[in-house]
Design brief:
The chain is α+β, with helices and mostly antiparallel strands. It has 20 helices and 26 strands. It is elongated.
């Protein structure tokens, strides 16, 4: 049996091999490290009876390494090795908590005598402290288990997640914690809940296993990341990782320590079992409450679940959105196809939608052609983004064919958000239904522009020069363009060119006045700096919740703004057709124009669905990294 485990740190290979030869011959298990950083990484994962460190290490020197080791584990025994000229430094290291020092060149007999004496003294010290430590550890474990026992009495996923985080923060004396729940087949983890002062970056909403730069744990044991200010705690059951927790910002101390790892491991054992039980119950509910042959819930469960979500958003001041999705030509399809074929097509639609929904989102089938989608923690703007993703997921899955003809499934959807659009299921459903009804009159749907490019739609709207005839004070349109007009939402216009900045300024003022409303503006232009001179409200716009994207331009520019972003795109179209697209949570506007001498002739509309889809087309065509 080995006499003990020793970690030797030296940046010279000769001394690392010397320590191994001398100590291994004496019966010790020896590990070596080239630097203080490597040694700290090893100590976070393994226990050693003694650490031997050279004082003159490259990078983190021996004194700094000793201090770091003592911060992590105050009970760790350390010997330092110094040159004769470094004796004052060795004394400084002893003040930092090391047991003793030895000078180079090393005398093997004296070296072994010092190692044996240090370990013997440590054994005596451990013997005296063993009973006390066992009693303290027993009390600590009992206290931890008593707190964690509450996990087993909670059967609702969000409440359990909050309780686990609150308990870990209390046990580890930390200011914040975040929980990511394992997604489908464990290939990713999606953020589920956050407590305290924990910070979550946008790219951390979804984590991938083995993400080394974030220090994600590879096994079932808690992991302390370099620096010790963050602790990863995996929750596992039968070797399956169900969730990842990151605890951060220890209170009143610089970093987490070895004791925290043990406490976190004990708490994680309870939390993993409790989470497994809740997930098992949740899966059973899903299987029993979903409609036959489809991955959509029945309305009885959906309404009950939504009432619980509404209670939470009222209590905690959170957000929630409801999407209504309907297949408009379902009756026609039912006439042409057998029920089995139509059900198979609808199953493909449901599977495609479920593939992009989050774990917390649920979908219900009210009828063969009518669906509800609940989006917790999502405002109206977020629901627009989800609709955009659903439309993208459904491409290629919305067509039925018989021997003679293809029939597309006309899936339409609109949403409503709590509390602006209603505070109950009935109110939200009625609002979304009203928007679905108005959607049928959208120019975008009437003209079937789903597969037409952004500039293709603009070209059809603006037509050719012969489509316009000008009188002294009026504009006469060809019959081809007249069909794009209606009395309520869409009109052609003729105005002096100098009025375009006035229209633009009016929108900016509206944005500033309603600064808390989320929105986006896309402005097509030929010269960034010239347009910048026409926008006096940029400083005020920076303080709003609306982002302005200037696209086109004549050269790349860099402005010191967060919400005003010039995006250089080569193309004559941006010079020939100035445009404005404005979309927020309440309203929409689009303007496309061509110059005719000193005048502008163009088309403008407040058709929400048209504007929403034109922005999506612009993003996709030029791969713009912005949402909606």
């Amino acid at each position: 049996m080995a006499k003990g485990r020793i970690l030797a740190i030296d940046d010279e290979k000769f001394f690392r091999e010397l320590y191994r030869d001398i100590l291994a011959a004496e019966g010790y298990v020896v590990r070596t490290a080239e630097s203080g950083e490597e040694a700290l990484d090893i100590l976070r994962r393994e226990d050693f009876d003694l650490v031997i460190s050279d004082l003159g290490l490259t990078g983190m020197d021996g004194v700094e390494t000793s201090r770091a080791i003592k911060r992590f584990n105050p009970e760790q025994e350390i010997l330092v090795v110094s040159a004769m000229t470094d004796v004052p430094t060795a004394v400084a290291a002893m003040k930092a908590g090391v047991a003793d020092y030895v000078c180079k060149p090393i005398n093997p007999e004296e070296f072994l005598l010092l190692v044996n004496k240090t370990l013997f003294r440590r054994a005596l010290h451990l013997e005296h402290r063993k009973l006390l430590d066992e009693n303290l550890e027993y009390v600590s474990i009992v206290s931890t288990y008593q707190k964690c026992r509450e996990f087993l009495h909670v059967h609702e996923l969000d409440r359990l997640g909050d309780l686990i985080l609150d308990t870990l923060m209390e046990l580890l004396r930390a200011e914040g914690a975040v929980l990511w729940l394992a997604g489908f087949d464990g290939s990713y983890f999606r953020r589920r809940c956050r407590r305290g002062l924990a910070q979550v970056l946008p790219d951390e909403e979804t984590l991938q296993p083995g993400d080394e730069e974030r220090g994600l744990p590879q096994g079932e044991e808690p992991l302390l990341v370099p620096g010790g200010v963050r602790l990863w705690v995996p929750l596992a059951h039968n070797r399956e990782t169900l969730a990842l927790i990151r605890v951060e910002a220890p209170v009143g101390r610089g970093q987490f320590n070895r004791r925290d790892l043990k406490v976190a491991a004990a708490a994680a054992e309870f939390a993993g079992s409790a989470l497994h039980n809740v997930m098992l119950q949740r899966a059973l509910e899903q299987r029993s409450l979903r409609m036959p042959r489809a991955e959509a819930y029945n309305m009885a469960f959906f309404r009950d679940h939504m009432e619980k979500e509404l209670s939470k958003v009222r209590r905690y001041g959170r957000q929630l959105s409801l999407i209504r999705l309907r297949v408009e030509n379902y009756a026609e399809l039912h006439h042409h196809f057998r029920s089995r074929e139509l059900e198979a097509a609808m199953t493909r639609v449901i599977e495609a939608i479920n593939s992009i929904l989050r774990d917390a989102d649920i979908m219900a089938m009210a009828a063969g052609d009518d669906f509800y989608i609940l989006l917790p923690e999502t405002d109206y703007w977020g629901s627009l983004i989800t609709q955009k993703r659903i439309r993208k997921a459904l491409r290629g899955k919305l067509t039925l064919c018989d021997m003679k003809k293809s029939f597309p499934l006309q899936a339409r959807m609109r949403s409503a958000a709590f509390p602006l659009d209603g505070t109950s299921f009935e109110q939200l459903s009625a609002t979304a239904e009203g928007r679905l009804t108005r959607l049928r009159s959208s120019l975008f749907l009437k003209e079937d522009w789903e597969r037409t490019s952004f500039w293709g739609v603009v070209g059809q709207l603006l037509g050719k020069p012969e489509d316009y005839r000008f009188t002294a004070n009026d504009l006469v349109l060809s019959e081809r363009l007249q069909r794009y007009q209606d009395d309520s939402k869409s009109r052609y216009l003729r105005l002096p060119g100098a009025q375009l900045p006035l229209i633009q300024g009016a929108f900016f003022r509206e944005v500033v006045e309603s600064s808390r409303v989320r929105g986006v503006i896309f402005r097509g232009c030929g010269n960034f700096e010239e347009l910048r001179g026409e926008m006096p409200d940029l400083e005020a716009l920076e303080k709003s919740a609306t982002s302005l994207f200037l696209v086109g331009g004549n050269e790349r520019v860099q402005w010191d703004y967060q919400r005003t972003v010039p995006i250089f795109i080569e193309g004559d179209a941006f010079h020939k057709v100035p445009f404005l697209l404005y979309l927020n949570e309440d309203s929409a506007y689009a303007l496309f124009a061509r110059r005719r001498g000193e005048e502008l002739v163009g088309f403008h509309t407040s058709d929400f669905y048209f504007v929403e889809n034109m922005i999506a087309k612009l993003q996709e065509q030029y791969q713009l990294q912005v949402q909606i």
